[in-house]
Amino acid sequence: MSRLKTSLPESLATSVKTAIADWQSGGKMKRLWNRDASLWTGDDESKWLGWLDIVEEQTAQQEQLQKISKEVHTRGFQYVLLLGMGGSSLGPEVLRMTFGRIPGAPVMQVLDSTDPAQVKAFERQIDVEKTLFIVSSKSGSTLEPNIFKQYFFERTKQMVGATKVGSHFIAITDPGSKMQQVAESDHFLHIFFGRPSIGGRYSALSNFGMVPAAVMGIDTKKFLSRAAEMVRASGPEVPIEENTGVVLGIILGSAANAGRDKVTLIASPGISDLGAWLEQLLAESTGKIGKGLIPVDREALGPPEEYGNDRVFVYVRLETGINADQEAKVAAIEKAGQPVVRITMADTYDLGAEFFRWEIATAVAGAIIGINAFNQPDVEASKLATRALTSEYEAKGSLPAEAPILEDSGVKLFTDEKNAAELAKAAGSDKTLAGYLKAHLNRIKTGDYFATLAYIQMNAEHEQALQVLRHAVRDKKHVATCLGFGPRFLHSTGQAYKGGPNSGVFLQITCGDSVELPVPGQKYTFGIVKAAQARGDFQVLAERGRRALRVHLGKDLKAGLATLQAAVQKAL
Predict the structure, then answer these.
(1) What gap in Å lies between CA 102 and CA 96, rounded to an integer?
(2) Rounded CA separation 359/313 (Å)
(3) pTM of the full predicted structure?
(4) Is the pLDDT of residue 1 over 90?
């Protein structure tokens, strides 16, 4: 089973030792397994701990998982497109990226973007007539999976006819949800149920993760047996210092309380997508009431002098694919006195164990930080703001008018009144794109973090351009940097950005859409939904008093990103 090794500065090591003793003497692990809500805030936490025994239940359901795996094969499906968002899509995405295409199984893709160019790109990668669509939505009322379903159901119906269309769809949803009703009335091939006592981000080892795993040909019995080993190793009878999930949680929680609240995630190339799942688990669980952990994923490792004293480094190593450059850089960071946690996985099937270890760790960290690790109030606020905007579009045929604070070089800048006043004052006479960006980036102070929130198509080219931008800021300002694509990040790190510590400086990027894509049965299009999500997101950031600026690029995204990159370089 995967192993854990730590190297901590003296002050943090002392705090961790004290917390381990407290958890041991206070019988806190027994309280966690007994679902004692007072371990957190005494609110509704006890209702959300169904993930503690889900591995046992899933193991007993092996037959069902093997059956769907065989059925997909006998029906001749060559592609699987999972339509989800947040907790329902990030687990399957990690599995897809880690295991790749398994011989004899269909090609799995995961769609979690409302960007019209992205939706079309996914459609081009599949043959609709040979595709199984998995509509994955816990509540059944989440906007994105619903409109993805509407779009692809209509496309499939055009290709295979009204009588056969349902047999191309399966649903994963909680019992009694709106999605269950839709799946039944549209004669879906199967409906798999989630457990209402498991929140989306803790659902990777439930049907939300294991049904896609079975469909893509993963040996779910082997995967769950690794998870079961970690469940046993995390039990209430295990001494706390030997309970690696608890120790990890104690380190993260103690570090956050001591001001080391940026968790820099480093993973071997073969498991590089694990960070995307961890981002949601950590940020959405802990980032609230002004506290929390800010996960930093896919930030290239730099020399030790790039880093302040506000970070913890967690390095997940895959024994079968160790990267020598990564090893050397982590060793240098550790030698410089930064806290480093090393987790070694024997092979990719150890992901089953890691999913459970990190769920335990996150619950424990939440208890130490003193928050409810299972709610997401600020994500809900963002959803409500989006819903209000899409409803207005349905009623009036347009989104509310908005005026930019600047137009320069084909780029428009938007923000709220408070941010606009601060930026105008700081920019002084330099009312240019670079001038405003300089004023905005100069608001970054020691201990802050910088986050780029991009509502554009997520592909290698765009990611590379934005990685250049974030690293330029890191290298100049010596702060942690984050990069998220919208609307995906809304359901993960978006909670911590709005509800966590007010130490973020945000650059939201939106663009004109070169592709227009209607949503069947609605007046709004995918482009309108994406615009409403970006504006709803920004509205809540502003309401929470965050330092935020929105950059709107034109329809020529390549040119727009080049303009933005040049302006950021000039601003720095």
Answers:
(1) 10
(2) 18
(3) 0.97
(4) no
